[in-house]
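Students often ask why we bother encoding 3D structure as a string. The short answer is that it lets us treat folding as translation between two languages. Here is a chain of 70 residues written in the first language.
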Amino acid sequence: MEMVHVVFSNDGSVKKISGCPEGVGGQDWFNFLSRKTCDRYESLSGGRGVFRFEKEEIEALAGEVAGNRK
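And here it is in the second language, the structure alphabet:
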């Protein structure tokens, strides 16, 4: 199982996110994952959260969002 970790600023915007494809902003990556995989996100305490995926799923999503940027 692969995880994408998210850390939020006090205003709710994304401060840091793991697995972000090159050329894609952290907030855009979070928004994309939220829209595509709403059932994969878990809120954590302290302004954090995590998405859980199979390795193949996260690779496909990263390719899709990067392809949408071109």
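Translate back mentally: Residues 55-69 form the longest helix (15 residues). Keep this in mind for the problem set.
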